[in-house]
Structure formats: C-alpha cells, structure tokens
Amino acid sequence: MKFEEVPVGFGLALVRNEEATNAFAMMTREQKQEIWSRARRARSKEEMNQVVNSILSQQTCV
To answer: Which residue of 9, 14, 38, 57 shows the fewest CB atoms closer than 10 Å?
Structure first.
C-alpha cells in the first residue's frame, strides 16, 4: 500500500500514540495491510482509535 492510500484518520490517530506507532513500524507488510483494511472500515474516531489501540495488543501476541 502506498502512503497516499493510508486513511488520513488512521495516520492522525497513529501519530498521537507513540507506542502504537513504534509497534506498527515493526509489523510485517501483511500485518500492516490488515490494519489498514480495518482502518478503512472504521466509521468514527472511536473506531479508528480502537484500530490503533489494537496494534499494541497484536504486538503482545507475537
């Protein structure tokens, strides 16, 4: 996925959470694509924050 295709709300939510940003950077391309897919389906700020927060829970499962 190209940077231009990343949902804007996802990028904004991600930069507000440094821990999630670092965890996202460590993910595989496939993991990132799954997160981006979920972010595109988010319909509210709360849902987007849930997607971003889920990055941390996925990190603890690895």
So the answer is: 57
